[in-house]
Design brief:
Radius of gyration: 20 Å
Number of strands: 0
Helix content: 40-55%
Largest sheet: none
Protein name: Cytochrome c
Distance between the termini: 43 Å
CATH topology of one domain: Flavocytochrome C3, Chain A, domain 2
Structural class: mainly alpha
Strand content: under 5%
Keywords: Signal
CATH architecture of one domain: Orthogonal Bundle
Organism: Geoalkalibacter ferrihydriticus DSM 17813
InterPro entries: Multihaem_cyt_sf
Number of helices: 5
Shape: elongated
């Protein structure tokens, strides 16, 4: 079996993709704690999806109760960055 240029190119591109993915930096955002307060949202995320659970984040994480740090990105996609601890 003789290797063609396209075969070598495909293997090279595949290897480059694997190297790129393996060199990704580790996650730096805090996970959502698995405690009594958040446990119900883990279940909701599992049963109905993360977007269903995210609707309730702002109930507690608002200016009055637990404000987000200054410079925090938009709040409507919390579980896009903050992983559920069981997602590890």
């Amino acid at each position: 079996m003789k290797l063609k240029k396209r075969d070598i190119l495909l293997v090279t591109i595949g290897a480059a993709i694997v190297v790129f993915l393996l060199s990704a930096p580790p996650a730096t955002t805090n996970p959502v704690p698995y405690d009594d307060t958040h446990r119900q949202y883990y279940d909701l995320a599992r049963d109905e999806g993360k977007k269903s659970a995210e609707r309730f984040c702002e109930d507690c994480h608002n200016q009055d109760m637990m404000p987000l740090p200054e410079g925090h990105p938009p709040k409507y996609r919390c579980l896009f960055c903050h992983r559920l601890e069981r997602d590890k």
